[in-house]
Structures are given as structure tokens and as C-alpha cells.
Automatic annotation (TrEMBL), chains A, B:
<dbReference type="Pfam" id="PF02767">
    <property type="entry name" value="DNA_pol3_beta_2"/>
</dbReference>
<feature type="domain" description="DNA polymerase III beta sliding clamp central">
    <location>
        <begin position="137"/>
        <end position="251"/>
    </location>
</feature>
<dbReference type="InterPro" id="IPR022637">
    <property type="entry name" value="DNA_polIII_beta_cen"/>
</dbReference>
<protein>
    <recommendedName>
        <fullName>Beta sliding clamp</fullName>
    </recommendedName>
</protein>
<dbReference type="Pfam" id="PF02768">
    <property type="entry name" value="DNA_pol3_beta_3"/>
</dbReference>
<keyword id="KW-0238">DNA-binding</keyword>
<dbReference type="InterPro" id="IPR022634">
    <property type="entry name" value="DNA_polIII_beta_N"/>
</dbReference>
<keyword id="KW-0963">Cytoplasm</keyword>
<comment type="subunit">
    <text>Forms a ring-shaped head-to-tail homodimer around DNA which binds and tethers DNA polymerases and other proteins to the DNA. The DNA replisome complex has a single clamp-loading complex (3 tau and 1 each of delta, delta', psi and chi subunits) which binds 3 Pol III cores (1 core on the leading strand and 2 on the lagging strand) each with a beta sliding clamp dimer. Additional proteins in the replisome are other copies of gamma, psi and chi, Ssb, DNA helicase and RNA primase.</text>
</comment>
<comment type="function">
    <text>Confers DNA tethering and processivity to DNA polymerases and other proteins. Acts as a clamp, forming a ring around DNA (a reaction catalyzed by the clamp-loading complex) which diffuses in an ATP-independent manner freely and bidirectionally along dsDNA. Initially characterized for its ability to contact the catalytic subunit of DNA polymerase III (Pol III), a complex, multichain enzyme responsible for most of the replicative synthesis in bacteria; Pol III exhibits 3'-5' exonuclease proofreading activity.</text>
</comment>
<comment type="similarity">
    <text>Belongs to the beta sliding clamp family.</text>
</comment>
<feature type="domain" description="DNA polymerase III beta sliding clamp N-terminal">
    <location>
        <begin position="1"/>
        <end position="127"/>
    </location>
</feature>
<keyword id="KW-0808">Transferase</keyword>
<dbReference type="InterPro" id="IPR046938">
    <property type="entry name" value="DNA_clamp_sf"/>
</dbReference>
<keyword id="KW-0548">Nucleotidyltransferase</keyword>
<keyword id="KW-0235">DNA replication</keyword>
<dbReference type="InterPro" id="IPR001001">
    <property type="entry name" value="DNA_polIII_beta"/>
</dbReference>
Length: 377, 377
């Protein structure tokens, strides 16, 4: 292969590709980026066998030449190191030329690198994903969905299905669920157009974290295709493929209680910062447990740590309905849940000291966050 | 004690104080910040017994009330944790009140913290530094001096004096020297006014690193006082005290050779970036050694790493005097030295393949950097 490519554009695409590359891969060739020069394009591939990212670079973008192809060919070059070189070179364009032994010459300005490359035949084939049926979301919507659920996936491999987000399709739309069994995040997306034959898939949280770093907060469409074991996100010049988690996701629909005993409506940001302050002491005491008291229509937060001290916060702007309450919970879970609710006002419904409580936006049930309390006495 | 203090101003001063506090202190009370409320001021002290920082906060700054004192008194409060609380509170002012058992109530807006404090009588006394004789430098000059030398101090405790910077006073001015025995940084400050009776002191590199984070790039004066074992930097409302290193600093004056065999003059930034690129491969190969070749009036850099590849850089804008040369050196030392030379053009003088070489600005000998080459064949 022999090409010349716009250096800044190349760096951006390589950085996307790097997101699929893990330094802890068991297959050494997966440390590399595969570069396949065709007649009219350059295809970059990075993969850690869980996630694969494939980017197609055309010769022109908006009538501006990005890529000049003198000779097609394919090579695999050591990922991070290769990207570091391209970044540190000077000049607008960089030239790449590979010989029969995959030795690759990189030249720009007064610099010349000669790198050992790898045989692309040793690079694993990407999984194929059936392109027939798909659901389409604007990338900004997909970003919000990931942000509102992904934090709640389990970090433990004890129950592997809980490390993923459950996408559950029905006639009403899609339900996205994540839980680590201490708290649960549920996002609903209404709309008949999202029905995909009652598909039910579990996408690894890690894959969605990486996808979220690449897609932008815009109207650009993401086409999502599912096969038996894989999901493909097709976005601009990029194909992002992740394996799906096998197994059955637990039925979480019964977890949501009805008929609250106590309901508190608070200003999201004010409540968040109060929790943040009270949790300072909870953290110093070695755990994140703080206490909330609802009494005579007023709400207070407190925490104490025997060696360090005590803290007390009065919540002024709350509206209280129902019975008095004393409840303890993990402050981190509460802060995560508040961040995931895109609204100035949050309603928290309690069903007694020992039962899970729920958070929703005051005006919408698009997002429901559920948290298990902690028994402290 | 009982005070109310401007929260933002308090945070800034506490952050300065924290720079003296090490989490690895052997004396637990040194994890805390000592707060001494006098009739007209609040004095904050932080110390790790190597460095001590004392900050005096007045009641008013530019006719604006910063501090309101209701009752003097003294307490020691756990450092980082206390500062975190002050940062996360809301409101412009925060109130502090300490009782006889050093229990301290912190209130702002709807928040109330009650922290266990410590008896200030258990806090060690700061070393006394004789204030009589001093040298005065603008803080911007002191910052430059630290930046141009401090990187070259030794990180190993094998020869403790080499972990500090030698300040050598004479009738001509001050010489600042740092060396880890592989490279040396020398900065000269000319001027009779800097003569302090041929004083010779070794200030720990770590202390100067912390000082450098606090002082700003301005004309504000820093008064520097030396005692037998301590140095005091007096800067605005702050007293920064560091212990001095004991022992004799090696005589480095004989290290500087005369009559170069080869002299190369290069553009600083261009040469720096070329070294940076070539060192990418040197680093990948497990060391930082790169080779420089001067031949027929042209300069080139190269490096190779058997598994990875080779790199070659031609340096275009150099001026060459003297003999041809092949020399190898640590690229990191070279990059550190180039950064320390505040000039677009740098002269490098070589005295043969196996002898130390020197870098200076083309137009000034205020800074001299010396590097030992590496034998590679």
C-alpha cells in the first residue's frame, strides 16, 4: 500500500479506533490497528474481540482531498505507538508506504519512521451483523439513554447479565434497564416505530461507555442492528460492533411498588449538593451511608462518624406528602440517580423504611431510579 | 474562637496551606491545619516538618471585610477533610465556632457540621528563622530559577545533598546548581546586591516544587532569609519555611570543559520536537537513548529498536562548527535541558563522544545545561 493522508483528520479517526483496543488483550495482533487501503477508501479497524470499531475514510470530504491512494494494500500496525507517531509528526499530510514484509515507512517533513508491521491475514474476522432490520435513534438521544442508565450496571462478574443494559422492545417502545441489585435505573422510550419483534438484548455496559465517548450530542442518526450475538451501531463513517451478553435478564417489573407512604418533592440541584456535603462525613467514616428524616413536613439529612464529627442539613424547598419517615441510604447511589434525572424538580416516593424507594422527574416518568435503603438500626 | 470568614478567600488560603501537608506524616496532628484567631487576624499553619507554611489573614482587604472576629482562640482541624467541607458549602461566608473541647461548629446556609478538633498545644512549634539579613527577588524571577534547575535534582536518597539545589552566594551574585550526576543544571544570577557573606545553602528540591506552585509569575517581592538549618521565603501574607539539607555540595565548577570540538546551533523548538519524535521509538525499545550524527555540516537524529523499527530525523536549520561527531544520549535529559533554556536558539558544545556536552542560549550564558553522553558501542 502507498497513501498520503491529512494528518489531523487521520488522528481523529485513529483516536476513535483506539477506543476498541485494550492493552490487556490475549491476542497480540489485537494491539494493532488494521489499515486496509482499497481503490477508493481506507478502512481502519480496531478490536478487543468484545468491541470492534471499523471506520471508512473516503478520498474526499466536502470536495477537499483527505486521502490520496497510490497503491492499495493492507497492514496491521501497533496501535497506540503508531498513533503517537502520527500525532507528533509535523506537516499537514503524512505518507505511508508498506513493502511485502509489511515493513511500513512513515514520512512527514524531515521525519522518517520505519516500523515493523503485521500480516493482516492473522487479524481476526469481524463478526457479521445482519443489516436487514434496524432501529434508528438520533445520537443525542442515544447518549442521554446511556448516561441515564449505564452508571447502574454491576461492576461484579458474579452475575454477568447485570454488567449489561437490558434493551427490551415491545409495542409501546423500548425499556432500558440497568441494575447492580442495590439500585436500578430504568429509561423508557415511547414510540411504535421502535418495535423490533419483541427483541430482548443485553448490551455490555463497557461497550456503551466507549460508544458514548465517540458519538456526539447531535441530530446525526445512529442505526442499530441486532443479530443473535452482536449489535451493530452504524454512525457516520463508523461501524461500532459489540457482542451481546448471553443469559436471561431478571424480570424487574415487579420491583416497582405502588401507593407511597411518603412523597417528597425537592429541587434537584439543591438536594444534590446537600447530599454531597453530608456524604463528605459519611465517606470519612468509611461508608457512604447517610440518613434522611421527614418530620412535621420538613426534610433533613444527617450523618455522623464517631471519631470525626456530625453533620446536619435542612432541606428548605421540599414539598412533603404522607407520613413521617426515617430512612438511610448510600449517598453515592442517590447522587447518581439525581444526576440521571434531567429535571429541576424530583419526586421521591417512599414505601416504608425497609423497602426500595423511587425517584422520578416531577413532570415525567420517562426515567425511574430505584434505590434499596440500608438498615442502620 | 468564633469567626465568620469569606468562603472563597478562605479556600484559596487553605489550599496554599495544604501544600505543606503530607498524608504520610508520622505525627498525626500534622495532618491538620492550625487556626489561630488573634485580636486582628487569623493565622493558618500547615506543616510536614520539612516544609511549614504560615498564612496571616487580616480582617479587611482593600476595604472589604474578609474576616469578622467575635472571639479569639486556637484549634487544629483535620486538613484535607476540613478544606473539602469549606469548598462544598454554599453561601459567601462561613461561620466557625470552637468550644473548650476543641469541638468546632461550621455553619453556612442550611448546613451545620460539628467536627472534632485537636488541642493546638500538641502542634509542634515552627522553626525560628533569623529575619535580619535577606535577599529579595521578584517572584517571577524566583519561579524561572526554580523551573530552570529543579528538574535536574536527584530523585535518589543515595547522596541526599543531590536532592537539593545548591544556592552559592559570592560577590558576583548567586549560582544555582542541581545535578543527579547524569546531568547538571546551572543558573547564574548576576548582581552585587545578592551577596550574602558567601553563604552556601542546599534547599530541598521538593520544597522548591511546592513553593513554585504558590508564587505567581509577577513582580511581587519574595524576601529570602537564611538561618543555620532553615530558609524562610516571605511572600505577601505567607511565610514559607523549609529545612536546609546538611552536608557539602560537590564542587561542580571543574566539570565544565573549554574549547569545544564540535558546536551545533539549532532552533530550540524545532530541535525539541525532533528529539520528542525520535524518542518515541527509543522509549518503545525500553530506554531513552537516541543518537545524534554531525557529518559534512549536517545534523541528524536517529534511534532504533530491533522489534519495532527505526526512525531518522534530519535537522535542517542547524549551524555546525568543528569536527564530525557521533554521540548518544538520554532524550529525556536533552528535552528537559532544552525546555530550561529560554531562547529560540540554542548552542550545543561537544568535547568528544565520551565527554559531557553543554547547552546554552546562543546569546546568553545565564543558563548552562550539562549532559553526560551514553556509551552505546
Amino acid at each position: 500500500m502507498k497513501i498520503s493522508i491529512n494528518r489531523q483528520y487521520f488522528i481523529e479517526q485513529l483516536n476513535h479506533c483506539l477506543k476498541a483496543i485494550s492493552p490487556r488483550t490475549t491476542l497480540p495482533i489485537l494491539n494493532g490497528i488494521k489499515m486496509e487501503v482499497k481503490e477508493e477508501s481506507l478502512v481502519l479497524t480496531g478490536s478487543d474481540s468484545e468491541i470492534s470499531i471499523e471506520i471508512t475514510i473516503p478520498t474526499e470530504i466536502d470536495n477537499e482531498e483527505i486521502l490520496e491512494i497510490e497503491e492499495p494494500g493492507t497492514v496491521v500496525l501497533s496501535g497506540r505507538f503508531f498513533v503517537d507517531i502520527i500525532k507528533k509528526l509535523s506537516g499537514d499530510f503524512v505518507a505511508l508506504e508498506t513493502n511485502d514484509q509489511f515493513q511500513t515507512k512513515i514520512t512527514a517533513s524531515q521525519s522518517e519512521f520505519n516500523l515493523s508491521g503485521n500480516d493482516p491475514d492473522q487479524y481476526p474476522l469481524l463478526p457479521e451483523v445482519n443489516d436487514e432490520e434496524s432501529v434508528v435513534l438520533p445520537s443525542a438521544v442515544l447518549k442521554t439513554i446511556i448516561t441515564q442508565t449505564n452508571f447502574a450496571v454491576s461492576l461484579s462478574e458474579t452475575r454477568p447479565v447485570l454488567t449489561g443494559i437490558n434493551w427490551q422492545f415491545s409495542e409501546d417502545g423500548i425499556k432500558f434497564t440497568a441494575t447492580d441489585s442495590h439500585r436500578l435505573a430504568l429509561r423508557k422510550l415511547q414510540g411504535e416505530q421502535f418495535n423490533m419483534e419483541n427483541m430482548n438484548a443485553i448490551i455490555p455496559g463497557k461497550s456503551l461507555t466507549e460508544l458514548n465517548k465517540i458519538i456526539t450530542d447531535s441530530d446525526e442518526e445512529v442505526e442499530i442492528h441486532f443479530s443473535q450475538n452482536q449489535v451493530l451501531f452504524s454512525y457516520g463513517n463508523m461501524r461500532f460492533i459489540s457482542r451481546l451478553l448471553e443469559g436471561n435478564y431478571p424480570d424487574t417489573s415487579r420491583l416497582f411498588p405502588e401507593n407511597y407512604e411518603t412523597k417528597v418533592t425537592v429541587k434537584n440541584s439543591e438536594f444534590y449538593h446537600a447530599i454531597d456535603r453530608v456524604s463528605l462525613l459519611a465517606r470519612e467514616g468509611g461508608n457512604n451511608v447517610i440518613r434522611m428524616t421527614v418530620e412535621n413536613g420538613s426534610v433533613a439529612l444527617s450523618s455522623n462518624s464517631p471519631e470525626v464529627g456530625t453533620v446536619h442539613e435542612a432541606i428548605n424547598t421540599g414539598k412533603v406528602e404522607g407520613e413521617d419517615l426515617k430512612i438511610s441510604f448510600n449517598s453515592k447511589y442517590m447522587m447518581d440517580a439525581l444526576k440521571a434525572i434531567n429535571d429541576d424538580e424530583v419526586s421521591i416516593e417512599f414505601f416504608g423504611t425497609m423497602r426500595p424507594f423511587t425517584l422520578e422527574a416531577a413532570e415525567s416518568d420517562e426515567v425511574v431510579q430505584l434505590i434499596l435503603p440500608i438498615r442502620t438500626y
